[in-house]
Specification:
Blueprint: H1 14-30, H2 32-35, H3 47-71
Helix pairs in contact: 1-3
């Protein structure tokens, strides 16, 4: 969908959703003192490592959702 000026327009209802989807990974990783511990371990990896790696995967999924919301 484009506006009269030729620029893509994003629905005003989608903008807060997009903002939240982009901020969630930042907030989740912004405070390492919350997740800087060894337990619980998952497959031998301390919590610190698998928590961060899980956010790599989750952030990719969230960015894909944001992309599809902006594409329409």
């Amino acid at each position: 969908m484009t506006s009269d000026s030729g620029k893509p327009s994003t629905s005003k209802k989608r903008i807060p959703v997009i903002g939240v989807l982009l901020v969630v990974p930042y907030i989740a990783l912004c405070f390492p003192q919350v997740y800087a511990r060894a337990t619980p371990a998952l497959l031998g990896f301390p919590f610190f490592y698998w928590y961060q790696f899980s956010w790599v995967v989750l952030t990719s999924i969230l960015l894909g959702i944001v992309y599809h919301l902006l594409k329409d």
